[in-house]
Amino acid sequence: MNDRNLNKAYDLAKEVREKAYARYSGYKVGCAIVLNNGEIVTGCNVENASYGATVCAERNAIFSVIAKHGSCEAAYLVLVTKTEASPCGMCLQVMSEFFPADFPIYVADEKKILGKKLLKDFLPLPFQKENLSKHGSH
Ligand code: THU
After folding, report:
1. What is the C-alpha separation between 63 and 27, in angstroms, rounded?
2. Per-residue pLDDT averaged across 36-63, rounded?
3. Which one of the listed residues 18, 47, 58, 110 is annotated catalytic?
4. Which of 27, 31, 91, 106 to mutate to test the pocket of ligand 1 (most atoms within 8 A of CB)?
5. Tens-digit pLDDT profile for residues 70-119
6. Among 5, 12, 57, 130, which residue's Cβ finds the most Cβ atoms within 10 Å?
């Protein structure tokens, strides 16, 4: 486990996790995405009284990268939860839009980084843009 800036990304994911707006579940999540240019962009979960309007930490982080750069060229991400959780299916699908199948995902809790897996380990068969048209023109 030695991706560049991993400890820094872990610290930033822990830091942003503290800012999570998780008043309904009490379950705070922090995510840090390390871009290919070395920049680290973070996101936390933001819940809503209309529960389905909640957005996860990972998607908030990815959408921030897109808002800033118009693309998401990233090396890996770090996910911090209380319980060594996997990313949810919706976040994995969004990741598959921007990241390659062998994109590394580090899962961590407040104490340490617990493991490294690849996007394809969590979601081997995402729905892909190529599926939208027979000839892959989308
Ligand atoms: N959550 C995330 O932020 N990321 C995930 O991958 C799983 C779940 C959040 C959503 C909600 O605010 C809380 O965790 C409990 O589901």
Report:
1. 21
2. 98
3. 58
4. 27
5. 999 999 999 999 998 999 999 999 999 999 999 999 999 999 999 999 99
6. 57
pLDDT of residue 138: 58
Q: So where are the chain's domains?
A: 3-131
| Range 3-131 has CATH code 3.40.140.10 | yes
Residue of minimum CA distance from atom 14 in ligand 1: 27
> What are 85-94's contacts with CB under 8 Å, separation 24+?
85/29, 86/122, 87/56, 87/58, 87/122, 88/56, 88/58, 89/123, 90/56, 90/59, 91/56, 91/58, 91/59, 92/119, 92/122, 92/123, 92/126, 93/123, 93/126, 93/127, 94/58, 94/59, 94/62
Query: In the predicted model, is pLDDT for residue 135 greater than 70?
Result: no
Q: For residue 137, what pLDDT is reported?
A: 58
Helix (H) or strand (E) holding 90: helix 89-98
Q: What is the DSSP string of 50-76?
A: SGGG-B-HHHHHHHHHHHHHSS--EEE
